Amino acid sequence: MRTARAATLVLATVLAGLTAGLFAGFAYSVMPGLRRSSDTAFVEVMQNINVVIVNPLFMTLFMGGLVAGLAAVVTNWRSDDPAVRYWAIAGFVCYVVMFGITSGANVPLNDKLAAAGDPAQIADLAAVRAQFEGPWVAWNIARAIVNVGALGGFALALLRFRRTADRAA
Prior knowledge:
Blueprint: H1 2-35, H2 39-52, H3 56-75, H4 82-115, H5 125-168
Helix pairs in contact: 1-3, 1-5, 2-5, 3-4, 4-5
């Protein structure tokens, strides 16, 4: 059981880190780079990113974070150190909040941008961009911050788990 408890914490930590890195990377490089682009380039690139990101690897990592986080909470529920459980719960709650932001804010904005159609056929690209860019960037920053919280929660649970294991050895 100790191996399963450790494995779920490691997996939850890694998956939270990967998704936090993705969203943070958008916040500090992709979106600032696109901010410098024309309306046509911005809309076209974001539409393309929103299509290609829904791939098996991303979905496995993104959804796997939920599963691994829940597994980390369940397997560590009766930890010798209650702090392991509390930090795992904190990490999982943060991951769920990030998932909610993504599902409730970013994805609907992505869908609305896709529904605008071919950038070459959009009459007012500046308006389409303005309705998308500001809110999407703000929600992306929020989910990146919360996802870093998930990473921190799982990492602290893992550190406490390790200390408890060292004391038991």
